[in-house]
Amino acid sequence: MVVARGEIGTDPVRAERFGDAEALRLNASWFGDPPFQPTGGYLAQPLIGIWARAPYFHNGSVPDLMGVIDPGQRPVRWRRLGSELEHYDIERVGLRHEEPGTAPDPDTREGRLVYDTTREGMSNGGHLYGAPLSEAERSDLLEYLRGL
Question: Is residue 97 a contact partner of residue 78, using CB atoms and an 8 Å limit?
Fold first, then answer.
């Protein structure tokens, strides 16, 4: 199921810029089976194993599921702490991370390690479905998602 950009309010850059030329290029490679096509939206992924697929959103802008269901907990800038088991945050369900106060130069190695949601195409906006939930409801939802 393709979800319209306007419905989820997520960063539109990828959907807007993926057109016929991009699909043709991918379809000419081994990536093209099944073939790509422009949709103008985003494909809703199954939730099975969602706990293991961090970072979240189509552009990887949210490091953990807590940030997905509580938009107020999404960091503006973040850097993952590592890729070992101890770097998985069981409570927040996703990547342990730190939040640098300033954005390093994106043309440096250090800058490429920081996800900066203020840059074009990297926004963590939208997906506000969990915003009206109470703290208890969010906790229950997170527990449910952990078990899928």
Answer: yes
